[in-house]
Inverse folding.
């Protein structure tokens, strides 16, 4: 079969990636982590003997084929590894694998509707009505969607021929090839020219856009049947983030961190997990996972492996029992005492496929091959195979002296859970990657968050989430600074994160590198004139200089020069930024001439221009220009004065305005600052307005028509900060869609102090301390002002709750207080009687459930 050659080729390119190319390689993934040979060769990094990772999950006598060894590389270096492989084994012997994109149910409807010139809004409504998941056992085919979707049934029988034809022809076209692409990770290495075995085509190389690469014309489903070996080269962005974090740590602290040798029992890391502070860490950052981690209070690595495996649709139902057993609230029991050997780490609950395999051998003397066949049959829900193996399990167990009734119960439990049970080898490897990210966050918080900001700088939603997390961690993210910032996000000597110069719109990486390199060679810049003398405008350009100024990169030179001065007009009527560019060019020309002069550099004399007078900008104007260049508000936010209302009273965010269905028939409150107003007329001549309102999560649009626009348009002025109340109701002529009916609009400045009526703090008795009392006392006000203060004190030992009210004073609820309460992970609080819906937790849980997008089927080997 060529096993030795196969293993050695994989070892070859992994060693070269690590040692020659400087590419980070993951610790392993999938069932390959169960191979001791792979571990000894350095292909995987997790000891399979220590964690009971089974070799036969990877390879056994009943499976006579080469196993899959999938390898993760940092996504920057994956292309270099593939290039190295092609150079070593020959370009004609290597190829990517083609993929054929077929028309799925929704695509077929949309494509046919476009040809039929059917109404776009109605088409989108039909696609939106299709359920995300079909009932168990039904495949994702248009025929099944029609059975489960009344809207599609009505469309199929519609009197409008365009609508009926859309469904009719979509049925016919579903499944046909729509286009070709390249497999995300599959790659072929052959001993001779691939064209001798399969037809070969060419396609654009995703790693090298200017190069055409060879691709097989057989796709991944059939390529191995031709005798060719498929290897998976995966790009994992988390490895790039960890690599960047270690680079920043070396740069800021001079410490080399070897993540392969960090302690697996680091108490600071487990404290981070126990407090649910996992935003930014691998696979453990969703709000639901954070909630369970706080309840679980993990103390060993095995707890993390189990949570990684359990936090998926299906197994999630077992998490409460797992937590209760871990914390001693539920007795740990075993159906048969010897089962403790393999279920001890998971507190008596079967979590992994490997446990089913081990227990089938222990209880009924299954062979290694039979145990893997059982695991695969249960995972694939092959009832006939499972039923055929049951008598052997019962008989084998009886021979070992076990009660047949108990064996039958164990088998029934496996049948229910084994289809969900997860591959422990994969869970262990990826839990180790997750632990590495948590270790970095716990021990080097500023450097870790800086790395995430650098790697995710093109995703505004991610950046906003990470900035919120930095605030929660007490880490300041500072505006760019020409004397402290690097090209990417970095950390200064005070542990604060500095915005990267290369991340400023209009500056570019080349200009940022030039600024940083000049500072390294000749020291910090003394003032703006020193800067433009030392950094030629041929490298930065006028637009780059302007972007640096408006983003705050020259704020360190205030009050000599401020952001306003760069846009101010001189007596000649030209912008001062143009004057600076001309001065820089004159100085550098004179410097060039002086270098060839008899008198040398001392002869350079160019007078610095006078800085013009100007009026200071408003906070809103300054922040708006900053956002234009940086992409978001960094040095502040126009809504900061109203953050308590925004975070504690609003239950709808602007980024959720596009999908109001989840708020159907509910009273909603939302707020923000008006950033754009467009007045126009409908086709019928009715006045209307489209208003863009932005809150902490981003912008959203609000459309007002007729009388509504006439009633509320006076509030809709650019720069106005508003609190809007209303109800989400079905549209009059299309009840399947929803719209907002506004009932009241107020200026945030008018309701900021009156909207919070009660503050309720919920905490355990032993968590009440002087620090909390001092904080509350400092914000105490007279009883006719502020909010009423209530306590709910819980005694967990006696299982009692005591309600207390502060009768002599009220509390001033401001941003400083809510930030403090948010930092206290040992308590919760309510405002006006409801739990606070933080922006970070507003992500849809279904998005966070996509823990590992490139994860193979847990039952696959």
């Amino acid at each position: 079969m060529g096993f030795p050659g196969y293993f050695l080729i994989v070892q070859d390119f992994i060693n070269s990636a690590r040692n020659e190319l400087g590419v980070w390689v993951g610790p392993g993934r999938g069932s390959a982590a169960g191979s001791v040979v792979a571990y000894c060769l350095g292909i995987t990094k997790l000891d399979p003997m220590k964690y009971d990772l089974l070799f036969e999950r990877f390879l056994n006598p009943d499976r006579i084929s080469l196993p899959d060894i999938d390898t993760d590389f940092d996504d920057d270096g994956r292309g270099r590894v593939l290039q190295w492989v092609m150079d070593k084994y020959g370009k004609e012997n290597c190829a990517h694998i083609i993929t054929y994109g077929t028309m799925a149910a929704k695509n077929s409807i949309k494509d046919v509707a476009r040809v039929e010139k059917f109404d776009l809004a109605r088409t989108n409504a039909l696609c939106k009505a299709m359920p995300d998941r079909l009932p168990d056992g039904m495949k994702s085919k248009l025929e099944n969607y029609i059975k489960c979707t009344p809207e599609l049934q009505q469309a199929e029988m519609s009197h409008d021929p365009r609508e009926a034809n859309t469904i009719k022809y979509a049925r016919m076209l579903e499944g046909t090839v729509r286009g070709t692409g390249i497999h995300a990770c599959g790659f072929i290495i052959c001993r001779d020219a691939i064209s001798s075995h399969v037809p070969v085509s060419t396609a654009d190389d995703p790693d090298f856009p200017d190069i055409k690469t060879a691709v097989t014309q057989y796709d991944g489903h059939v390529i191995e049947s031709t005798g060719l070996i498929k290897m998976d080269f995966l790009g994992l962005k988390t490895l790039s983030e960890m690599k960047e974090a270690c680079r920043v740590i070396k740069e800021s602290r001079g410490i080399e961190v070897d993540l392969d040798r960090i302690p697996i029992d680091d108490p600071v890391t487990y404290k981070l997990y126990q407090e649910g502070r996992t935003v930014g860490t691998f696979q453990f950052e969703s709000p639901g996972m954070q909630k369970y981690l706080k309840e679980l209070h993990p103390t060993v690595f095995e707890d993390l492996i189990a949570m990684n495996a359990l936090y998926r649709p299906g197994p999630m139902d077992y998490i409460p029992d797992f937590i209760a057993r871990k914390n001693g609230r539920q007795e740990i029991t075993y159906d048969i005492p010897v089962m403790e050997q393999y279920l001890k780490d998971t507190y008596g609950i079967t979590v992994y496929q490997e446990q089913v395999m081990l227990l089938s051998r222990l209880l009924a003397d299954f062979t290694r091959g039979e145990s893997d066949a059982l695991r695969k049959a249960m995972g694939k829900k092959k009832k006939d195979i499972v039923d055929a193996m049951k008598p052997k399990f019962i008989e084998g167990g009886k021979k070992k002296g076990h009660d047949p009734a108990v064996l039958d119960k164990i088998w029934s439990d496996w049948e229910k859970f084994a289809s969900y049970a997860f591959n422990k080898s994969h869970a262990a490897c990826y839990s180790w990657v997750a632990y590495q990210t948590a270790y970095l966050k716990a021990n080097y918080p500023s450097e870790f968050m800086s790395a995430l900001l650098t790697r995710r700088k093109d995703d505004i939603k991610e950046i906003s989430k990470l900035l919120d997390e930095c605030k929660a961690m007490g880490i300041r993210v500072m505006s760019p600074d020409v004397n402290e910032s690097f090209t990417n996000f970095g950390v200064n000597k005070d542990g604060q994160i500095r915005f990267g110069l290369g991340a400023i719109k209009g500056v570019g990486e080349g200009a940022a590198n030039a600024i940083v390199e000049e500072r390294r060679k000749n020291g910090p810049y003394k003032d703006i004139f020193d800067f433009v003398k030392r950094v030629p405008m041929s490298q930065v350009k006028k637009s780059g200089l302007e972007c640096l100024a408006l983003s705050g990169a020259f704020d360190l030179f205030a009050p000599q020069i401020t952001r306003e001065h760069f846009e101010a007009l001189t007596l000649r009527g030209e912008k001062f930024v143009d004057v600076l560019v001309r001065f820089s060019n004159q100085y550098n020309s004179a410097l060039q001439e002086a270098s060839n002069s008899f008198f040398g550099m001392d002869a350079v004399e160019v007078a610095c221009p006078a800085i013009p007078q100007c009026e200071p900008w408003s906070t809103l104007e300054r922040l708006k220009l900053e956002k234009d260049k940086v992409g978001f508000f960094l040095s502040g936010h126009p809504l900061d004065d109203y953050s308590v209302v925004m975070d504690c009273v609003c239950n709808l965010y602007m980024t959720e305005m596009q999908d109001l269905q989840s708020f159907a028939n509910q009273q909603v409150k939302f707020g923000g600052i008006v950033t754009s107003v467009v007045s126009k007329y409908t086709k019928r001549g009715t006045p209307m307005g489209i208003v863009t309102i932005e809150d902490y999560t981003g912008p959203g649009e609000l459309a007002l028509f007729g009388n509504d626009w006439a009633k509320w348009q006076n509030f809709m002025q650019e720069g106005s900060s508003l609190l809007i109340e209303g109800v989400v109701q079905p549209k009059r002529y299309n009840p399947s869609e929803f719209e907002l009916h506004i009932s009241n609009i107020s200026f945030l400045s008018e309701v900021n102090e009156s909207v919070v009526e009660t503050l309720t703090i919920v905490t355990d008795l032993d968590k009440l301390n002087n620090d909390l009392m001092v904080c509350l006392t400092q914000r105490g006000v007279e009883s006719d002002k502020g909010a009423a203060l209530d306590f709910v004190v819980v005694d967990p030992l006696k299982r009692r709750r005591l309600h207390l009210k502060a009768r002599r004073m009220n509390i001033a609820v401001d941003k400083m207080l809510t930030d403090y309460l948010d930092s206290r992970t040992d308590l919760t609080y309510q405002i006006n009687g409801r739990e606070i819906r933080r922006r970070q937790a507003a992500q849809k849980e279904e998005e966070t459930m996509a823990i590992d997008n490139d994860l193979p089927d847990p039952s696959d080997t």
About this structure: Confidence is low (pLDDT under 50) at residues 839-861.
